[in-house]
Structure formats: structure tokens, C-alpha cells
Design brief:
Helix content: 40-55%
Shape: globular
Number of helices: 13
Strand order of the largest sheet: 3-4-5-6-7
Largest sheet: 5 strands, mixed
Distance between the termini: 64 Å
Order of helices and strands: HEHEHEHEHEHEHEHHHHHH
Length: about 300
């Protein structure tokens, strides 16, 4: 396991709990030391990692998508042998899988792409795995997937890139679902009943047989229970890339995805502070209708 961040560390733990032998490597050795205490075999360099792995070697990367993955693959491909397998379990763009798979295939090394969902709860309940690559290699690796996933929680999706493609669409759907919940609570908070409503109780209620029940609502209930109006939370929402890629894919394929697209744009909107667009809207309303504009010289009594 290369990369012992929030996901990689817990995945290594779950593999250990499932009876798998894990050689763990992290760029900073402190996390490697930590997982060694829990039963992993530590490696403090790529050559040491390769030496400790029996052939055919299986190297699982849990790294941020992009240059970091290319950098690690370019290093380890020179140390691996034909028949070895590299698994990319990060949130990689599926077209990068195809490119990297062709690069590794030249050396006889197989690339498997695995979209992983489950977040920080995966250690306890298991990780949902969406898997792409050679089907024979998938079957060989199946004991690893079984150890990581809950029952019926992994699926072979197709050739190289298919796993991350399905995960990309999964995350696009997630964007839309989260936006719908956010807008619903916005309406509740702007209602004449807001003072009497307990949002944690509502989130809990909606999970009791309602058609909108979900794990996301469980997380909303937990968040509201800690902070009833989320007053300590800043309304600044990042996107990890997959929402953008889903929209780009929809454009490329000519598929209409208005909900996912708008949910992505809403995240962009959350990061703006006193944008020129808002100022244009306010100024135009003032100019054509004499509407009040608050702030600075434009404030009207």
C-alpha cells in the first residue's frame, strides 16, 4: 500500500483485519511506523518495498489524482517485473488510466483502476469498489477486494478505465444529491417555522422509511446534532475533480445533465466573495428600478 493518508491507512488496516499481508510505504515515515505497530510490514523506500513483495507483486496506490500518480508510477515501473500489478485506487480521471495502462503494458505490468467510495467510514463498514482492467487479473485479486468491501460491495466494471469511469459518475450523482439536500434545508431555514424546527430530528425522520432516506442524511443528522445551525461551518465548498469530469463527459457524449451541472456550479459559487457578477446584478436593479443597493456609496435609505 503506497500512500497512508485518511483512506490508504484505513484500507491497510482493513486488509490486515481481513488476514491479508500488507507491505506499507508512505512518503513520510511516521505513518509507516504507525501501521507497522498494527501488523504491517514497513518499507521506507521503493526498492525496499519491491524487495519485500513476493512475485507477482501487487502495488496499490492511494494518492491524489494527477502528477503524484504519474511520478510514483514512473519510479516503480523501473523496479517492477513483467506480471506485476499496479492498482490505482485514487480518484483518477479514467482517460489517465488508459494512458498509464498502455505505458505499463510495454513493460508487461498490468494496471487495474479501482474507484473507492466509503470515506473515513470504510474501515468499519467496508469500501464500495468499482474495478476496471484485465478480468483475469481481477479474478486473481478478488480476495483483496473481498477483504476491503462489504458483502456485494465490489464489481468488475470492464476494461482499463471502467472502474474510475463508474466512480466518476457516482461522484457526479453525489454532487446532485448533496445539492438537493442543501437546498431543502435552505428552504426550511427561510420558512416561518425555522425557529421550531430541529434539523437533526428532521434528517433523522427522513431516514425512517422516506423515499429520500440515505447515508448522506445520516451524516447530515450527525452534523446538525453537533451544531444545530452549522454556524461554525464555513460555506465554502471545494470539488475534487470528478464532478467536473462528469460534466465534461456529458458534454462530450451529448447527454443532458442539468442537475449535476448546476450542483457543480453551485460549488464554484460558494467560493466567491462579493463577485463582480453580484455587483452587476445589484447595480442593474438599481439603474432600471431604483432598487436599494447595500454597501458603500450605493446604500439607499
Amino acid at each position: 500500500m503506497v500512500g497512508l493518508g485518511r483512506m490508504g491507512m484505513n484500507m491497510a488496516r482493513r486488509l490486515l483485519q481481513g488476514g491479508q499481508q500488507v507491505v506499507a510505504y508512505n512518503r513520510t515515515p511516521g505513518k509507516t511506523d504507525q501501521i507497522v505497530k498494527e501488523g504491517a510490514n514497513g518499507a521506507y523506500s521503493f526498492p525496499e518495498m519491491v524487495e519485500k513483495l513476493p512475485a507477482p507483486r501487487v502495488v496499490w496506490l492511494m494518492l491524489p489524482a494527477g502528477p503524484a500518480v504519474d511520478d510514483q508510477i514512473n519510479q516503480i515501473k523501473e523496479m517492477l517485473s513483467p506480471g506485476d500489478v499496479v492498482i490505482d485506487g485514487g480518484n483518477t480521471y479514467y482517460k489517465d488510466d488508459i494512458r498509464r495502462g498502455e505505458l505499463l503494458q510495454k513493460k508487461g505490468i498490468q494496471l487495474m483502476d479501482v474507484g473507492v467510495s466509503g470515506g473515513i467510514w470504510g474501515l468499519k463498514i467496508g469500501y464500495c469498489l468499482m474495478i476496471g482492467g484485465d478480468k483475469g487479473i481481477y479474478q486473481y485479486l478478488e480476495p483483496i477486494f473481498k477483504a476491503l468491501a462489504p458483502e456485494e460491495g465490489y464489481l468488475y466494471c470492464g476494461t482499463t478505465g471502467a472502474g474510475h469511469f463508474v466512480k466518476m459518475v457516482h461522484n457526479g450523482i453525489e454532487y446532485g444529491m448533496m445539492e438537493a439536500y442543501a437546498e431543502g434545508f435552505d428552504i426550511l431555514d427561510a420558512s416561518p417555522y425555522a425557529r421550531s424546527l430541529n434539523y437533526a430530528h428532521i434528517a433523522h425522520l427522513w431516514n425512517q422509511g422516506s423515499v429520500v432516506r440515505s447515508w448522506l442524511l445520516e451524516l447530515a443528522e450527525s452534523a446538525f446534532a453537533k451544531d444545530a445551525k452549522l454556524s461554525a461551518t464555513k460555506g465554502y465548498v471545494e470539488d475534487s475533480g470528478e464532478g467536473r469530469w462528469t460534466v465534461e463527459q456529458a458534454i462530450e457524449a451529448g447527454v443532458s445533465v442539468p442537475v449535476i451541472t448546476l450542483s457543480l456550479f453551485r460549488r464554484f459559487r460558494s467560493r466567491e466573495r462579493d463577485s463582480i457578477g453580484d455587483r452587476v446584478l445589484a447595480a442593474l436593479r438599481r439603474e432600471f428600478g431604483g432598487h436599494a443597493v447595500l454597501g458603500g456609496e450605493n446604500k439607499e435609505e
